Q: What sequence folds into this?
């Protein structure tokens, strides 16, 4: 009996699902990378603008808007990361067994916590501006900038940890 048509059929099905899994992996990896790059752009813009030298009404409005987009991108980053964890070709077990995974998640939470103070400040500044045209005090701008800069230093560390983690270290 000739089994080759059945064999060919099974082979095509296997190949189809393999390609599907690899395409999903590539799409998720691309969106994760795009989210990382976008996050860095919006964080850098905050760092560049949050200085007393540049402070004016337009900058206060811009900082609040940048921060809102930054928050949305952070959520996209988290969701694509989770999707890679659950649906990625490597499987969740191996990822979670690594201490670097826990380090990466802890740093991500740290970055999220560091972003709270700037978010509250930017919103308060915009409210004060809308209500009375008042600009933030120099000391407050300097303080807020420090929190933004801490985040800007934590995010690259997360990326480096991710690279080692992705290689099974
Ligand atoms: C600021 C936050 C984050 C940064 C900078 C970051 C960075 C990276 C980088 C650079 C890679 C590629 C590693 C490589 O293939 O060499 C990666 C992969 C990955 N990330 Fe993230 N990530 C972040 C947040 C997250 C979060 C919150 C999760 C999960 C909840 C996550 C889950 C993953 C997964 C599952 C991979 C795939 C690893 C692999 O290819 O084996 N990431 N991340």
A:
């Amino acid at each position: 009996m000739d089994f080759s048509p059945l064999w060919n059929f099974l082979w095509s099905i296997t190949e189809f699902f393999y390609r599907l899994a690899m395409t999903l992996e590539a799409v998720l990896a691309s969106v994760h990378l795009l989210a990382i790059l976008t996050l860095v752009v919006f964080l850098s813009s905050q760092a560049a603008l949050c200085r007393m030298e540049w402070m004016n009404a337009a900058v206060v409005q811009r900082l609040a808007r940048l921060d809102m987009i930054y928050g949305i991108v952070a959520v996209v980053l988290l969701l694509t990361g989770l999707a890679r964890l659950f649906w990625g070709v490597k499987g969740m077990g191996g990822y979670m067994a690594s201490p670097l995974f826990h380090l990466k998640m802890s740093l991500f939470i740290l970055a999220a916590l560091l972003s709270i103070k700037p978010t509250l400040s930017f919103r308060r500044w915009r409210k004060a501006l809308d209500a009375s045209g008042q600009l933030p005090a120099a000391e407050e701008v300097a303080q807020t900038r420090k929190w933004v800069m801490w985040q800007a230093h934590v995010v690259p560390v997360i990326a480096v940890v991710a690279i080692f983690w992705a290689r099974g270290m």
